[in-house]
Amino acid sequence: MKTRIYAAALAVVLVPAFAAAQGAPLAKAFHEQITSAEKNLVGAAEAMPEDKYSYKPTPAQMSFGAIMGHLAGGNDALCSVIGGVKPPAREKLAATATKAALIARLKETFAYCHTTLGSLDDSKLGEELTVFGDKLSRGALELETVGDWADHYSQMAIYLRMNGVLPPTAKK
Known about the structure:
The chain is mainly alpha-helical. It is built from 5 helices and 2 strands, in the order ααααββα. The protein has one domain: Four Helix Bundle (Hemerythrin (Met), subunit A) (Up-down Bundle), CATH 1.20.120.450. A hairpin with a 2-residue loop joins strand 1 and strand 2 (134-137).
């Protein structure tokens, strides 16, 4: 009987510690997605020839360079809201900036996301946040951010293919 009591007491102590050791599954997945999105988006930016940064399939669409600026601004806005900090003040880059400048800015904003969200965990997933006038939980905003990166990568991949360039994920 004493063995069962000791085993039960030990379980009460160890199970929460074991669960905590499993980490934060959404935060871990989100960190992995930041790294994956950065690799794909920067890779797509590097693959597009500089003279095609002004390319857009139709007049109503963003140019490739404008997508780059949009992504950089989005990274600063989304990662700051998720991280609960004020976004950095950066000089706005024009869509017509050089390829090198646009890539450098995109890399800079991903570095900001890594730093700002480095200690992110799953303890506040339900906290309500406001971004672009919408109210979302932190967990929903993390998922929305991953979807936004995927959306823009697919957009960039189409632009690349329309210009005879194979997107990074097609080279695997």
